[in-house]
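Archive entry: two folds, one per protein. Generate the first.
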Amino acid sequence: MTTTERRRAAAGRMREAEEAVARLRDGFAGVGITLPSLRIDLASCAASDSAALVDLGRCNLDTALRLSQLLHGKAAGHGG
């Protein structure tokens, strides 16, 4: 793979990761949850042979509890 091809591949992974972060941010906002550290893991985007990673980051205890309640509700079929 040439340098140009690696750069294009990295740019594509970066775009996909940006879109995923935006969708996650919108989805969480739709249920009243904000993850302040939600972002792209830039180091993973630079690797030539791996997929980009999304860093969900850190959140406070209240947010963690609300997330767990939301997930529990989805898993139980209650729709959150």
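Generate the second and append.
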Amino acid sequence: MKRKQRHETRNDPLRRAILRAIAALGIAALAIAPFAGLASAQSLLDKIKNGETVRIGFSNENPWAYPGTNNEPLGFVNAMTIDILKKLGTTKVEPVVTEWGSLIPGLQAGRFDIITGGMYITPERCRNVMFTDPIVTPITALIVPKGNPEGLHSYQNVRDKGLTFVTGSGWSEVSNAQTIGIPDDKVMQVAGAVEVVQAVKAGRAAVGGGDYWTMKRFADEDDSIELADPFTQPVEPPSSALAFLPNQQASVDAFNAVLKDYLGSDEMMKSVGKYGYTKANLPPESHTTAGLCKG
């Protein structure tokens, strides 16, 4: 907004000096403004200390993170997050459910404090969020019509047969498809797992890709589809972690300190076992957040 013009006379040097000082302060304030929000942002640890509710953001991705019938946060990533928050001193948690593609924008907009959707650690995402240490290394799967009529057992099969591949928008399967060489016009991106299955069942895509747990759950519940078996992984499986805003280093450090003893413990396995997480899904020692952020 433009400042209102004020009358100034030559015989009022004190007034002119005051106005010049105010103007200078205004310019300085504008220069500082871009950094003010970052510096003054309340940390998650402050919220816990002050007894405030911690908001966790996730999409409806069973068994990673999803809402229950009463909107309670379910899934193995939410279970791990809730356990860690308890150790840090709070049980006050509010779930915020959104589409997968809105998770990082939602975090940046302040809609929630932590992304618990189980995001893979990638260099691109590391430029926008700060990840904890890895918490899970999943494998992927292909979902096909019953009987696997196209005989698909790898991404290379999909590429070589020129078939349409469907997966979730923003999922790592998109980059997997690109790495293997499936043309962009043969990669259909949809909102989530439900839409992936619908596209395969309707014949809009010959095959769908996603994480093993999600694809297996749909295949177990629907006799018209199945997992491609055997299946060759397209690339080395990545690892996932919890995500915070880049200015939340202290909060990430606190989470990582808890993870050192918690990850793989009997307590953790009891919390996540009911969702299909096993010790085979624990991240290998070679997977570090710093290394995965470099690519």
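Annotation attached to the second fold: The CA atoms of residues 205 and 283 lie 32 Å apart. The first helix runs from residue 13 to 40.
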